[in-house]
Amino acid sequence: xxxxxxxxxxxxxxxxxxxxxxxxxxxxxxxxxxxxxxxxxxxxxxxxxxxxxxxxxxxxxxxxxxxxxxxxxxxxxxxxxxxxxxxxxxxxxxxxxxxxxxxxxxxxxxxxxxxxxxxxxxxxxxxxxxxxxxxxxxxxxxxxxxxxxxxxxxxxxxxxxxxxxxxxxxxxxxxxxxxxxxxx
Length: 184
Hints:
Elements: H1 2-9, H2 26-159, H3 162-183
């Protein structure tokens, strides 16, 4: 402790002018040296530090400006993308509605076509049934006529003798001749 107080006491003791040398007393020389160094740094470093700070400030401002421009461009692109999305959604809704209406129209057309086809099939069926009925009726008529004719021929053959048979044939030939003259 005595050395510390001695060093403060020796601050009052200055060597005579004209002598030059190193002062080894650290406590006495440190504040003076630091103040000189700080003064020199402030005097000469003020411009350099100011330039460094100005450059840094300009870079920060340029970065902010660029960021703002990029932000503006991003917002513009976002708005364009939203507009395209709205347009695509509108077109998709329109396609969906058109698709549904087209499906409904095709469904109605298919149903109508099926009904027409069913009506035609029903008509063909009815015509076929009528044709088959008429054919069956004609076949029955032919058989009845053939049986009646065979029965009549059988009866005539049994009842007729040769002379009556020849007169009937002559009368029929005469009727056919008369019919032929009428048609000519």
